[in-house]
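2024-03-11 09:14:02 DEBUG pipeline.ingest accepted 1 chain
2024-03-11 09:14:02 DEBUG pipeline.ingest length=361
2024-03-11 09:14:03 DEBUG pipeline.predict start
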Amino acid sequence: MKNDIARTVAAGFFCVVLVGCSGQQSSPQTAAEPAEQTSGPRFWREAKTRIRFAGSSSNLTLISRYLGEGMYRRLGAGTVYAIYGARGHAYYDGLVSLGEQEVDFAVITPPVTGKMAMAGKGYFDKAYPNLRAIAVYPQNDWVGCAVHPDLGVSSFEEIKEKRVPLKLATGPVGQHDGVGFLTEQILAGYGITLEDLKSWGGTTLPSPSAGDAVQKVLAGEANALCHEFWKAYYPLVEKIPVRFLSVREDIRDQLAQEFGYQKVMIPKGVYRPNLPDRDIPTLDFSDWVVITRSEVPDDIAYLAAKVAVEDRAGFEEFYIHQPERQRSMDTPMKPEIMWKNVGIPLHPGAEKYYREAGLMK
């Protein structure tokens, strides 16, 4: 096993969890490494195996913690792992740091994020063809766009035709944010630019989370929203019968072909009877995917996949006691699909685990 699989500390990150081996360790037998590796705590410098996670935030950090602890227990003394939280847009920053070999694992959502990064498309300015997948933590989600009924519109076409002063709560636009990017692409499909919104008296309101976007609508700051985590909309639909907007089929096809987005339907009546009043075509935002780099040794990738599958029951404990309307992950996890819908090629080590475990034929 390669003794050191990490390189430099990622710029723009801070260490939120650091677990080291116990007891005095001898100097590790490592290959030539940059000077940065000789700095830091003694247990980090003297560890035989160092693993770095771009844990990002929220659920993604929790995944990184469980993987790190599970790998640490199995690798034993001489192992140390670190988890970094991203400042800014977690899915982007963590993935770029992975591609730049500053960390060894990252967690993203949705799978198309890794596909765009591999090709240098979308909101990625550089291609990272060395990205590889480890496992998917399944959760059902989509980007839902809805407007306040007082606007008197029920489609993007009407918004454009009537030049509606849309005050749209969504992910930060133009700032390497996945939700903001997809929202901008949907609007562009209808020939609506951010400059158009401003000229009509509207704007976009940066909302890093769906809950934040919902609160902006409830407070009257926004009259529309486009965001992910569909369950966060429950407090909104209970007070305001918003109208969900369909994404036209040719636009969904274009986004699927150009970037790799997957199509999905918001089911009729998913929030309450007749809300929405029909199936709503939109774009998928499901699944958390653990990714790594092709340079990471096969046995480390194998172990990461093994921990993801075999330690899943402990991870599920964080979710199964939550009310269904608040639960962000689908439970129980199904090992037979944890290698599917990863968006990018599996790491050979992870694939070896799934085949040996009989989960992949």
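2024-03-11 09:14:41 DEBUG pipeline.report The chain is about 35% helix and 20% strand.
2024-03-11 09:14:41 DEBUG pipeline.predict end
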